[in-house]
Amino acid sequence: MISLSKIITLVGLLAIVWFGFRLLSKVQRQRQEALRRHGGVKANPKGGTTARGKAAASGTQEMAKCDVCGVYVAAGSGRCGTPGCPR
Ligand SMILES: [Zn+2]
Questions:
Q1: Structural domain of residue 38, as residue ranges?
Q2: Measured in angstroms, how far is the CA atom of residue 79 from the centroid of ligand 1?
Q3: How far is the CA of 83 from the centre of ligand 1 (A)?
Q4: Which of 14, 30, 55, 60 is packed most tightly, with the most Cβ within 10 A?
Q5: Does residue 12 sit within a domain?
């Protein structure tokens, strides 16, 4: 015979699982939406030959080696920022 406490426990577990799935799907949907938005910026048809500049503008950093200390830094920045580097 099934006792009331077992039913309550079962219902509680189902509720937890259901809420968990809901939360998970919500987070996943938000992440996919963000990814799609980001991908949409990247896949801009206006890019063409100036894709490098567009990529840099959309958050992707072009890296350049500092010829003084050899540390890779963002290409746009003049200084490398490494302590002790004269550049
Ligand atoms: Zn340097």
A1: 4-43
A2: 7
A3: 8
A4: 55
A5: yes
**CA–CA separation, 75 vs 73, rounded Å?**
6
**Which tokens is 26 given?**
């919500």
pLDDT tens, 32-81?
Answer: 999 998 876 555 555 555 555 555 456 677 888 888 888 888 877 777 77
Q: Against a cut of 0.70, is the pTM above it?
A: no
10 within domain boundaries: yes
Residue 13 belongs to a domain: yes
Report H helices in the chain: 4-42, 51-57
Ligand 1 centroid distance, CA of 86 (Å): 7
Query: Given the structure tokens 């699982």, which residue do they identify?
Result: 17
Q: Quote the ligand 1 centre to 65 CA distance (angstroms).
A: 8
* Number of domains making up the chain: 1
56 C-alpha to center of ligand 1: Å?
Answer: 21
Tokens of 33: 């939406």
